[in-house]
TrEMBL record:
Enzyme category, top tier: transferase
Record's protein name: Thymidylate kinase
Cross-referenced SUPFAM superfamilies: P-loop containing nucleoside triphosphate hydrolases
CDD domains the record matches: TMPK
GO cellular component: cytosol; nucleus
Ranges of residues in domain Thymidylate kinase-like: 8-187
UniProt-listed Enzyme Commission number(s): 2.7.4.9
Any single biological process term in GO: dTTP biosynthetic process
Annotated PANTHER family: THYMIDYLATE KINASE (PTHR10344:SF1)
UniProt family annotation: Belongs to the thymidylate kinase family.
The entry's keywords: ATP-binding, Kinase, Nucleotide biosynthesis, Nucleotide-binding, Transferase
GO molecular function: ATP binding; dTMP kinase activity; nucleoside diphosphate kinase activity
Amino acid sequence: MRGTFIVIEGLDRSGKTTQVSTLQTWLESSGTPVKLFKFPDRTTAIGQMIDSYLRSQSELDDRAIHLLFTANRWELATSIERLLEQGTTIVCDRYAFSGVAFSAAKGLPLEWCRSPDAGLPAPDLTIFFDISPETARERGGYGEERYEKEELQKRVRGLFGVLGAEFESGKWVTVDAGRSREEVAEDVWRHVSKVVGKVDGPVARLWI
Ligand code: Z5A
Ligand code: MG
């Protein structure tokens, strides 16, 4: 069996990073080899340019920053694929769906946004964390970075809906992330335990 590729997507402050870490602990204690990825990965040279833009320390054309986010995924795509082939399950905090949803919410054409991510390793399961902007606003750290504005977040939420609707049932699931940490974690585990250790064959390609 190859590893399972699980992506956690969702709105700002929906608790993705919190839940990715709980999921890692639960997978490890069930004996599943697991590795976490997070996009943007701010540690690479490309990631540092993204970080500077998100913290409003630099300005970039909307298309240029979109392509940097994509390049940040491509620079890690081979590692992701290799680990999956070696039997390691991957849990990824944001992926290409954030890339498309945020750039399209700023006004770029959706198909233009999708095109440079086409061909990346495709997740076996994407869990979308849905939360109302009102609940997100009550959580720590909201409003510190460039995209943390309520109007933009509303458009992003609609675009995630459009992207999720394209998936066959079971490959994209929505979780109500406005509940307690424990309730969200239980729900995530319910979905993950249905697929983990049960996928085989070559890693699929996204949007191809
Ligand atoms: N972006 C893009 O434009 N294009 C791309 O291709 C990609 C990303 C990949 C930075 O992302 C921005 O980049 C993001 C999208 C854009 N912009 N926005 N908005 P990031 O992933 O680096 O962002 P972040 O700083 O990690 O924030 P986040 O991901 O939005 O937060 P989170 O991971 O979903 O939440 P959290 O850190 O786990 O929790 C937030 C707080 O809530 C924290 O204080 C927790 O303790 C608390 N929390 C968590 N769960 C709960 C529950 N259940 N109840 C109450 N409180 C909770
Ligand atoms: Mg996060």
